[in-house]
Amino acid sequence: MGDSAFVGKGVTIGENSVIGAYAVVTKDVEPNTIVAGNPARPVGSINPDDISTRKHLFTGAVPYSEFETSMARESLSDNSFISWLLAMVFRR
């Protein structure tokens, strides 16, 4: 649902539908439909087979603790006493 969109009382929004910003929805919206405008009119459709969910994004992902450890190693790989000392002596 877009920013500042208005949906009238008793209006049903179908599953997987998208409401554009500032749209004024006065009639029911069918499932898998994109609506926009004042009054809101269908401007496109969504293929339900192409929809990915957050669950699909994280399938087979590494646990967060492993991710955090690898990111810390990567970001601190250039850290050393010499680089700290140089940073203290030659401040920017």
Structure description:
- The structure is a single chain.
- The protein has helices at residues 54-57, 64-75, 81-89; strands at 6-7, 18-19, 24-25, 33-36, 41-45.
- It is an alpha/beta fold and 92 residues long.
- The strands form 2 sheets. The protein has a 3-stranded mixed sheet, with no helix packed on it.
- The protein starts with 5 loop residues before the first strand and ends with a helix.
- The mean pLDDT is 87.
Report the oligomer: single chain
Question: What fraction of residues sit in β-strands?
Answer: 15-25%
Q: Please write the string of helix (H) and strand (E) elements.
A: EEEEEHHH
Number of helices: 3
- Quick check: average pLDDT? 87
Tell the overall outline. Answer: elongated
Radius of gyration: 25 Å
Distance between the termini: 46 Å
Counting DSSP E segments of at least 2 residues, the number of strands comes to: 5
Strand-pairing-aware structural class: alpha/beta
Low-confidence stretches: none
Spatially, the strands of the biggest sheet line up as 2-4-5
Major sheet size, sense and barrel closure = 3 strands, mixed
Give the fraction of residues assigned to helices: 25-40%
Features:
5 strands; alpha/beta; 92 residues; two-stranded parallel ribbon
Q: Which helices and strands occur, and which strands form pairs?
A:
Layout: E1 6-7, E2 18-19, E3 24-25, E4 33-36, E5 41-45, H1 54-57, H2 64-75, H3 81-89
Quick structural gist:
The chain has helices at 54-57, 64-75, 81-89; strands spanning 6-7, 18-19, 24-25, 33-36, 41-45.
